[in-house]
Design brief:
Blueprint (H helix, E strand, L loop, with lengths): L1 H4 L6 E4 L2 E4 L41 E4 L8 H13 L14
Antiparallel strand pairs: 1-2, 1-3
Length: 101
């Protein structure tokens, strides 16, 4: 997804092989594909996400894969990138997000 988003990607945290994009509150209203966790997208909900110091830009361990100063990623853009990434993985369902429901 980093390749798909390119320069449009905001800050990304990498921890234990997982990537975490930061998005503005309320911008990810849809359910993500299997294997993609969308943390609470409504202001009434909350989630805890550990954040490394801004100077931690290399592993091992939790670090900024894309620097913190890049800010947030557009939720709609991240959703589309996740859908494209999922649909182009070998052996995946053609409609993992249930858009046809």
């Amino acid at each position: 997804m980093l390749v798909l988003l390119g320069e449009d990607s905001g800050a990304v945290i990498e921890h234990q092989g997982r990537l975490y994009w930061l998005v503005p509150v309320g911008t990810v209203p849809r359910q993500g594909p299997a294997g993609v966790v969308m943390l609470p997208g409504r202001a009434a909900e909350s989630a805890f996400v550990g954040m490394p110091p801004v100077h931690w830009t290399r592993g091992p361990g939790m670090h900024w894969r894309v620097p913190a100063e890049r800010g947030t990623t557009c939720g709609d853009l991240l959703y589309v990138a996740a859908r494209i990434a999922w649909n182009t993985m070998p052996g995946q369902a053609s409609d993992p997000l249930g858009a046809g429901r």
